[in-house]
Design brief:
One of its GO terms (molecular function) is homoserine kinase activity. This is Homoserine kinase. This protein is of the alpha+beta class. The protein folds into 2 domains: 153 residues, 2-Layer Sandwich (Ribosomal Protein S5, domain 2); 126 residues, GHMP kinase, C-terminal domain (Alpha-Beta Plaits, 2-Layer Sandwich). Helix content is 39%, strand content 25%. It contains 10 helices and 10 strands. The strands form 2 sheets. Strands 1, 2, 3, 4, 5 and 6 form a 6-stranded mixed beta sheet that branches. Helix 1 packs across helix 3, helix 2 packs antiparallel against helix 3 and helix 9 runs antiparallel to helix 10. Bound molecules: L-homoserine. L-homoserine binds next to helix 5.
């Protein structure tokens, strides 16, 4: 049995911890077999190949939630670089939970997601769902609530340019810089942007989607962890992007527009000019 969990763009501008979109590539793949305990082998990007791997944490969590004995053997092809801002831990956690669900014959979305969130909690210290949930459902997802699970999905098809620099921003660190309270005017602005973005996504109006890729809840506080942000943003806009912002808690950034190959290249070059190697590509909404 095989499980594929795509990378995701969490927050997607103004939707902190609420919006997320699956992207076609990269992704994590797991080949799964029933086993009498929990074992994992890893190929691809370097992550632990023991019980601390979030895929194992999530798989175990599902067994525990159901009071089941036994385990799974997983061969994880780790396609998403850890600490990239592309939902690497979310995808592996989800793949582990789905692998366990396949072995146990479970199809309950809420239980699978609850188990996957245990992997996310182990990785980042917070069980936020905006990577795990779009990776599970595909498309663009809006989390109304995690418990009970209430998710709204927009079946948009959107192309994005993605740039991933060779630096790491751990989500756990990026969450520590967030304030407990935000100014009311910033909350209002985010509400305006987020609600407008939902309508723009339904209409696939990429110019408006681009204009709304901003955030006043997390980005202003996180920018100090990403001193390159303004330069890369400017390069993308100069290359014709309609909008650009950070993916998840970074360091990856993404942009929307028409000429995305040029936009992706411009973002990659902006990183290179600052002495940071970066890979870039164009992809679209994942299923
Ligand atoms: N919503 C999360 C955050 C996503 O911004 O901390 C992390 O990938």
């Amino acid at each position: 049995m095989k499980v594929y969990a795509p990378a995701t763009i969490a927050n997607f501008g103004p939707g902190f911890d609420v919006f997320g979109m699956a992207i076609e590539k990269p992704g994590d793949e797991v080949v799964v077999k029933e086993c009498d305990n929990f074992r994992i082998e890893v190929i691809g990007h370097k992550v632990p190949a023991d019980g601390s791997n979030v895929a194992v944490v999530a798989a175990k969590a599902l067994f525990k939630l159901l009071g089941e004995e036994g385990g799974v053997y997983m061969k994880l092809k780790k396609g998403i670089r850890p600490k990239s801002g592309l939902g690497s831990s979310g995808a592996s956690s989800l793949a582990g939970a789905v692998a366990a669900a396949k072995v146990l014959g479970v199809e309950d979305d809420e239980l699978i997601i609850r188990a996957a969130l245990e992997g996310e909690r182990a990785a980042s210290g917070s069980p936020h769902g905006d990577n795990v949930i779009p990776s599970y459902y595909g498309g663009f997802t809006i989390i109304e609530s995690i418990s009970p699970l209430r998710v709204h999905r927009i079946d948009v098809e959107l192309k994005v340019a993605v740039v991933l620099p060779e630096v790491e921003v751990p989500t756990s660190e990026a969450r520590k810089v967030l304030p407990e309270k935000v100014p009311l005017k910033d909350a209002v602005k985010n509400l305006a942007m987020a609600s407008s973005l939902v309508l723009a996504l339904r209409e696939e109006d990429i110019e408006t989607i681009g204009r709304l890729l901003d955030d006043r809840l997390a980005l202003p506080y996180r920018k100090k962890l990403m001193p390159w942000f303004d330069k890369v943003r400017e390069a993308a806009l100069n290359a014709g992007a309609y909008g650009v912002t950070v993916s998840g808690s970074g360091p990856a950034m993404f942009a929307v527009g028409e000429n995305l190959r040029e936009v992706a290249k411009a973002m990659g070059e902006a990183f290179e000019e600052m002495g940071i190697r970066a890979e870039y590509w164009v992809t679209k909404t994942g299923r």
